[in-house]
Automatic annotation (TrEMBL):
Family: Belongs to the LysR transcriptional regulatory family.
Keyword Transcription regulation: yes
Domain called HTH lysR-type: residue spans: 1-59
Protein name in the entry: HTH-type transcriptional regulator DmlR
InterPro entries with a match to the protein in the record: LysR-type_TF_proteobact-type (IPR058163), LysR_HTH_N (IPR000847), LysR_subst-bd (IPR005119), WH-like_DNA-bd_sf (IPR036388), WH_DNA-bd_sf (IPR036390)
Gene3D superfamilies reported in the protein's UniProt record: 3.40.190.290, Winged helix-like DNA-binding domain superfamily/Winged helix DNA-binding domain
Pfam families from the UniProt entry: HTH_1 (PF00126), LysR_substrate (PF03466)
Xref: SUPFAM superfamilies: Periplasmic binding protein-like II, Winged helix' DNA-binding domain
Gene name of this polypeptide: dmlR_10
Keyword Transcription regulation belongs to the record: yes
Keywords from the named record: DNA-binding, Transcription, Transcription regulation
Organism of origin: Paraburkholderia metrosideri
Amino acid sequence: MNEIRAITTFVRAATLGSLRRAAVDQGISPQAASQAVMQLEKELGVRLFHRTTRKLSLTEEGQRLFDSVKPALSIFSSALDEARRSKEEAGGLLRVSAPRALGMPMLWTYFEQFQQLHPNVQLEVQFDDHFTDLVTDRADVGFRGGPPPSGGSIARPLVPIQLIVCASPEYIARNGAPRTIDELDQHRCTGYRRANTGKLAQWQFQIGDEIVYRDVPPVICVNDTEMETQAVLSGLGIGQLGSFNATPHIRSGRLVALLTQHITEYGTVYIYYGHRTEQPLRVKTFIDFMVARLADNRAFFLDPVELRATRAVRRGRAASERG
């Protein structure tokens, strides 16, 4: 027996005073309505209605059941209506997971913009450098940099992540700039200790068709990419920074890209989420909003034209210095 349907039919019949009208109200046949009530009576072992050809009235047991279940059924119906409205209104709690490294330099501005456009959405952001399993951690949407997230979620690529060796103009004025990877040993360098593993990140270089890894001893080491960026901006040393941190400062002239012929693509920033179907509107709206603003957004990486121009400028400066 479908107890919810049977109780709903019973309450509608008692309210309307007719099984036939209750059937029409629920979009079922009169026979189905009558059978549902009879099954409920059989299950409970009591008679719920006095029936005549013209009239339907509650028995004493039926009245007690009606008084007990009607408020609960009203709450249940309201809950179902609220769930249906979540497909029609961008409102409610939205849980988002992202690594700290992407938070301020890339994501936070757009989180603020989304909240301003959709004030009925309560945005709960968890910055976590470990991979977030959306189901286990009850998150609606996640962001990750590197390879595509695993675990059966849907992942959409947004922007590439380049690893760019950078220094401030002040550092270069004091110490010169390395012209080869090997010359980095003669310079003060910054380091990044991965927050999720505690290991010092190796520097990566593209040499021909291969990616070569080097251990570069740091004079200052941090476990926060923004702090490392600040250290490089302050002239403390040369650093290999993610393009989402470095690109705005390179374009403004606060940083100089070095060894650009060896820039590698570390991976990609992805947005990932569960099944496309049956998503609340707030989740779908947020995904569409972030994809529209981040997909191939040149604010966060250097395109090939810029890289060629940067190399030409560096070659020109090197020739001038030699002359």
